[in-house]
Amino acid sequence: MGGDQTNRLTSGGLIDRSAALNFRFDGKTFSGFKGDTLASALVANGVKLVGRSFKYHRPRGILTAGSEEPNALVELRSGARREANTKATTAELYEGLEAASQNRWPSLSFDVMSVNQLFAPIFVAGFYYKTFMWPAKFWEAIYEPAIRRAAGLGRAAKVSDPDHYDKAWAHCDVVIAGSGPAGLAAALAAGRSGARVILCEEDFVLGGRLLADGGTIDGLSAAEWVARTVAELSAMPDVRIMTRTTLFGVYDGGTYGAIERVNDHLPVPPEHQVRQRLWRIVAKRCVVAAGAIERPIVFAGNDTPGVMMASAMRSYINRYAATPSRRIALFTNNEDGWRTAETAIAAGLQVAAVIDARPDVSPAHRSLASKGGFPVLHGAISGVDGGKGGVRKISVALTGGARAEVEADGLAVSGGWNPAVGLTSYHRGRPKWRVDIAAFVPDGAPPGMVAAGSANGAFGLGACLREGFEAGAAAARDAGRSGNIGSMPVADDDAFSITPLWHVAGKGKAFVDQQHDVTASDVELAQREGFQSVEHLKRYTTLGMATDQGKTSNVAGLAIMAAVSGKSIPETGTTIYRPPYVPVAIGAFAGHHRDENFHATRLTPSHHWAAEQGAIFVDTGLWKRAQWYPRAGEKDWLESVTREVKAVRSGVGFCDVSTLGKIDVHGPDAGAFLDRVYINAFSSLAVGKARYGLMLREDGIVYDDGTTSRLAEDHYFLTTTTAKAGLVMQHLEFCRQVLFPELDVQLTSVSDQWAQFSIAGPKTRDLLKVIVDPAEDLSNEGFPFMGAREVGLRGGIKARLFRISFSGEMAFEISVPARYGEAMARNLMIAGKPFGVTPYGTEALGVMRIEKGHVAGPELNGTTTAGDLGLGKMMSTKKDFIGRVMAGREALVSPNRQVVVGIKPTDKARRLRSGAHIIPKGETPGPGNDQGYVTSVCFSPVLDQWIGLGLVERGRERIGEIVRAHDPLRGEDYDVELCNSVFYDPDGGRQRG
Amino acid sequence: MADFSWDVRSPLDRALVAGSYGAQGDAGVALTEIRNFDLVQVMARRGKAAEMAKAAQARFGVAAPETPKAVGTADATLIWSGPDQFLVLSRGGKHTMDSLAPVFAGSTSLSDQSHARALISVSGDKARAVLAKLSSIDLHPDVFGVGAAAATSMDHTSVTLWRGADRADGQAVFNLLVFSTFAESLWHTILDSAAEYGATIGHSEELM
User: Fold this and answer.
1) In sequence order, what are the residues at sequence separation of 6 or more whose Cβ sits closer than 8 angstroms to the Cβ of residue B115?
2) CA closest to A666 among chain B residues
3) Any idea what the CATH number is for the domain that residue B145 is in?
4) What range(s) does the Aminomethyltransferase C-terminal domain occupy (chain A) (predicted)?
5) Are B142 and B200 contained in the same domain?
């Protein structure tokens, strides 16, 4: 025995007394054993007070021994790993565990905010709605922060979680939730059939209630039977047993969500291991053997530390050899509760009394009472005398009106059992009421799922085994497995009788939902104020809305509502059940997708070369693109970008444009196909030529643009914008497969096949002559503007060369197979060295396209027509194309539309900002006279001032007009001139030269 | 001026560090990038599927796959990639665009994908456990046997996944083709997924 585990039995239990573990709770050191939970270790150390309640800061103890726990919530671990609202009842003990109680200040035993209890009469349901209504602006600034300080639960770590999480898929014939008698029997039958089985158990030990309640199965003790069964299952190659794993949800197509707490039982996950793993399990069938949850009875003082569920008390005594109290009273309304009296006596504890709400008690229990020397009181508990030190005395209202008092330091309560109907109800299922057990049971389930055992309302051990075995066999059969299932495990059935009792009238607060501090009188108040629907009751009182999702409180709450509104429980009904069954860390849903791995990243073929050059990268969609290449001594990005632009305009530069979407369009009808998807003609394009194309959406709005080259009679090479690459491919596939199946055309994305570089500037041809095979004619005659063909490069590889220009300069684009991309960049540097070649990034690219008046993403923004972009004349009248008819709609051809125009501040020193609104001079800015906005801006090295493009009402008719750029976001308002959108080389001589 | 040199760099050239990665001890998984291959997309023209199949049979001696399968031949693997289309994977220089063009002339359109993908092979005791973190495909031996193939996604990235011939030690081999520009990103996710089992990392010029 280690340390001062005053409440630990000397023998028994599933703990390893040879493995003592030290832990700290609220700064105090305790010891426990391997096999303990934090809760059982606290029980073993005689700790009764573990937390303060949410609203009233009432002292609270441990109520349950499972994941339904509403009270014993702690902050587990410290620093970045601090995890709020962790259930002490499921947290496995490990050496050095640190936990702190929550919602108390300055300490758990002396909590200033517990004065809230004195004001309890005003903290009723709807208190916040009623009180903090006025003035409205006070809510965010004053009320909410104050309430959040006073109420609430644990504190978040507020720093990045240092641990890793991942996600995985699993596939099986049968997934089973729970490893109690029903779950193990189901696994046996399914496994023996030859089915692929996944058995999920949220506990770290298999066995479910068998661990606490024992029993005899096939003539073996429960422990022996569990061991034998687990051995048999473990030997089956296609049976996978997953402990520490909760099946928390069911989704379409037989997909189930499960959370595996891989390393929560260790202080820190071992190197390279994850803390938790989120499973998506695809199963043909599911057996829900998730058991049942014992429910409390609502009476005054039922939240006093020392009041515990009867089944939980058995768990602590039998499984953990820890005694929550020395002298216990039992309050039950059913047969099952009596097991706790038997357990207590067997453990050598005193039983002070059994208070049984039923009219009659079995002879066996009567004789147990007389042998144990304790009274059986018929009636109900009406009050508990005690405080943070725990239960002292219990008041009993006896049947017939007399009163009695019982002295005890612990009180076990059993109000019956609620089958865990969560999983079966997650697809909007509503459970049905069964009178004989006074509980909701599943009424159907999502496709492929069935409940078995106590999750299905079968409370006897024999019935659990039978239902589980049969469900497992049927599930395997449905999945097409027909192996010999052998014999069914057999056990006796225990009798179960219950007299429903939900709420006992009495003085003092009687809690329904202990985690959210919702009392029976809150439910009654809600009824009086008209919130009678269970969904309204839930939201008005917050009943069942805490992290425990009302596992111990929902049914009692609606039963009380039924009683006060004069309806039956089934008439009152349940709220909708929603996953997850237990809280799941957001980190588990994110898995690897956090920080720099938030999404997949695409790298251009010259990425690593650009990184070597010191490029600054920008995220554009999934891509990392070189934005500019700073050089030593440059003071900011603008200086670098201006240098790059000037270098291109006066010499030569190059830029990796591999991010453009690239599509091979093949087939005899490729030209006809392109004629239908572009507004302009492509069937007439000569082999060896490129053409700029614009495509519309079906509604007539511009979709995308790019150049397409004809490389052979039946082969076009189409490019898209970077942003729309994937979408255009989808769009074209849709056109090919659905709209125009009669055309013989084939599409392949070749975006990743080619590394493509734009080489621009007056010395482009000089550079190319160095690298391209000298036999190739690159003269204006031999390779005219908009030419496109394959050329040889010196050193033996082939490239595609396109004479197209985005910058307005003499320019080519060159493509090589992607694995040569990095070599291409290096060779361009070598070939261009005599000409001062300069790599440039997306910023310089953008500057040059704005100077040249080319539209891009900000103008192709899903609202503009070809006409708006100044490209209306491209719309062929000789053929049909997608978007043609709808583009003719009145509003899309209105002369008042906002169209692309150039914009420059009248004060040359002023910076133009995109997003600024265009307002006529002399008018007050407002929606009524908002005539458009600035879409793209840059500092133009050529004009030595800021310029931009904008969408402005009738803009092209207003060239030369001075208007206002009104920018309320930045508090700016200045005069700008509307001008031709082509600021640079308007007649295009440079690019053709 | 002297000729230029054209170094070939695979998309994983920088990210792949040969050796062991993650947990120490016996590696649970082997990750091998295969660098030297030709990959050609073959698509039947309208109404020419039968002709394409005939041409494929004549060239490769096997029927081209008509369902998600990877068919191995002496010097190529034919991988289904959609209705009436498949990929031809071969050692670099074996079945190139130029050599396949006359074989399939008239019946198909060909598109070179040799540089558009990275090829990664995953094998070892924990190969399925690693892939379960990346793929929604059921890789149980009864379901995904030798030659099974899937056009699927990993880490939101399109991949072609197929099971090749088993290793000499009987271990299953899973091959995946990923688009080149996504390869480094997916590689890091694969490493993350493999770390807990320990990985042996390498690259090879040769198809296995």
Assistant:
1) A752, A753, A754, A817, A818, A819, A820, B180
2) B109
3) 3.30.1360.120
4) 900-985
5) yes
Check whether residue B154 and residue B140 sit in a common domain: yes
Specify if B188 maps to a domain.
Answer: yes
Contact: B112, A753; criterion CB under 8 Å: yes
**Strands of B37-44's sheet in order across:** B70-72, B77-82, B85-91, B37-44, B108-112
Give the residues across from B89 on adjacent strands: B39, B77
CB of A836 within 8 Å of any CB in chain B? no
Q: Which two tokens stand for residue A450?
A: 């069935």
Q: Specify whether the CB–CB gap between B21 and B30 falls below 8 A.
A: no
Residue B123: domain span: 19-35+116-204
- Positions of E strands within B98-169: 108-112, 117-123, 149-154, 157-163
- Interface contacts (A, B; CB < 8 Å): 158
Chain A residue with minimum CA distance to B137: A169
CB contact under 8 A, B115 and A753: yes
Residue keyed to tokens 């690019």:
A991
Number of domains in chain B: 2
Q: If chain A, 993 residues long, is cut into consecutive pieces of 10 residues, what is the mean pLDDT of each piece?
A: 79 96 96 98 96 89 97 94 95 97 79 71 67 65 65 81 96 98 98 98 97 96 98 98 98 97 96 97 98 97 97 98 97 96 96 95 94 96 92 95 96 97 94 96 97 97 98 98 97 90 93 95 94 92 92 95 95 93 94 92 98 97 97 97 98 98 98 98 98 97 98 98 96 97 98 98 97 95 96 95 94 98 98 97 97 96 97 95 97 97 97 97 92 98 97 97 96 97 92 81
| B191 falls within a domain | yes
Same domain, B156 and B58: no
**Could you tell me if B93 and B108 lie in one domain?**
yes
- Which one, of A669, A618, A657, A693, lies nearest residue A875 by Cα? A693
Q: Please give the helix or strand (H or E) that residue A612 lies within, else none.
A: helix A607-612
Closest-approach residue (CA) in chain A for B81: A748
SS3 A224: helix
First to last CA, chain B: 40
Residues within 8 A of A (CB atoms), B 124-183 only:
129, 132-133, 135-138, 140, 143, 155-157, 179-182
Burial group, residue A229, by CB count within 10 angstroms (0-12, 13-18, 19+) = buried
Decide if the complex's ipTM is over 0.90: yes
Q: Which of B112, B133, B167 is the last residue of a domain?
A: B112
CB spacing of B45 vs A754 below 8 angstroms: no
Contact A597 B111 (CB under 8 A): no
Which of B56, B89, B112 is the C-terminal boundary of a domain? B112
Q: Residue holding tokens 């082999």?
A: A687
Q: Does A686 touch chain B (CB under 8 A)?
A: no
Say whether both B48 and B71 belong to one domain. yes
CATH number at residue B50: 3.30.70.1520
Are B194 and B126 part of one and the same domain? yes
**Residue B3 belongs to some domain of the structure:** no
- For residue A623, list chain B residues with Cβ-Cβ distance below 8 A: 181
Assess whether B148 and B174 both reside in one domain: yes
Interface check B46 vs A, CB under 8 A = yes
CA distance A124 to A300: 16
Cβ-Cβ contacts under 8 Å, B136 against chain A: 169, 280, 282
Is B9 part of a structural domain of the chain?
no
Asked if the C-beta of B22 comes within 8 angstroms of chain A's C-beta atoms, the answer is yes
Residues 57-96 of B with CB under 8 A from A: 85
- Measured between beta carbons, which residues in chain A are less than 8 angstroms from residue B152? none
Q: Are residues B105 and B130 in the same domain?
A: no
Distance from CA of A423 to the nearest CA of B (A): 22
Select from A165, A175, A266, A603 the residue whose CB has the most chain B CBs within 10 Å, as the one to mutate to test that interface: A603
